Amino acid sequence: MSKLHASAAKEWDLVIRPKIGWLDLHLADLWRYRDLMAMFVWRDFVAQYKQTILGPLWHILQPLFTTLIFTVIFGKMAKLSTDGVPPLLFYLAGVTCWSYFADCVNRTSGTFIGNAAIFGKVYFPRLSVPLSNVISSMMKFAIQFALFLAFLIFYWMQGAPVQPTAAIALTPLLLRDTAIFSSSSSLECS
User: Fold this and answer.
1) Which of 90, 112, 123, 133 is the most buried (most CB within 10 A)?
2) Range in 107-121, 130-144, 169-183 with the lowest mean pLDDT
3) Is 57's pLDDT higher than 60?
4) Domain of 118, in residue numbers
């Protein structure tokens, strides 16, 4: 009986151990479970506007409506200066970055409560769910950033005083820092 017990113990390929410190994140497990994380990303992205009339078109309409409201309130009524940048482009840039940050914070803060049933059933890296929220928010940001780039090119072609510079290459760093700050602050609060 002890030989059978010993051979059964050798068949296990995953041993769950307690964390040693704060930075013991088991990042290798995230890589091993990348297919599950991809499924979580797809689930979050598709389910977000699944039962709405306009569907994913909201990813474009929401920042446009917000930008138009900001343009009317801050540009026309309050007469705030945008230093020569077209007001629509100025406010769209801010709305695009802010909506990514807010979306990451809102979706990541409810991760553990919203997925409690999954966490209790089977082992997988718990960090994969908040990370999948950040990645699915990144897909939404990519759509909105493409909209911003389209407006930037339009205004640039019209002769507006906007010049795309090499600083636009720093966008991935801004995106990474925003993702880290928003997810860490929301995980700390959840």
Assistant:
1) 133
2) 107-121
3) yes
4) 26-189
